[in-house]
Predict the structure.
Amino acid sequence: MKKIALLLPLAGLLAACEPVAPPEPEDACGAAGYQGLIGQPRSVLENMNFPLGTRVIGPEDAVTADFRPDRLNIEYAPNDRIEKVACY
């Protein structure tokens, strides 16, 4: 009887265990492959294909604040030069 009394709390602890999702890769959107765009004029983007959901963000553009590590974001400065390529 004592064994059962000891095992019940342990069974409860094990039942509470839930698989943990693996962490998102740091470059889930593939931004590393586009770093060569930094410093280029924004016009180079016109003839390129990007993953679905990619955002090209200007200095005065409003964007949502939701974090999506799989979304490619390309930011350009007021001088129309690309200044940042990142996943967020």
The domain at 26-87 is CATH 3.30.10.10 (Trypsin Inhibitor V; Chain A). The two ends are 55 Å apart (CA to CA). The chain has a mean pLDDT of 86.
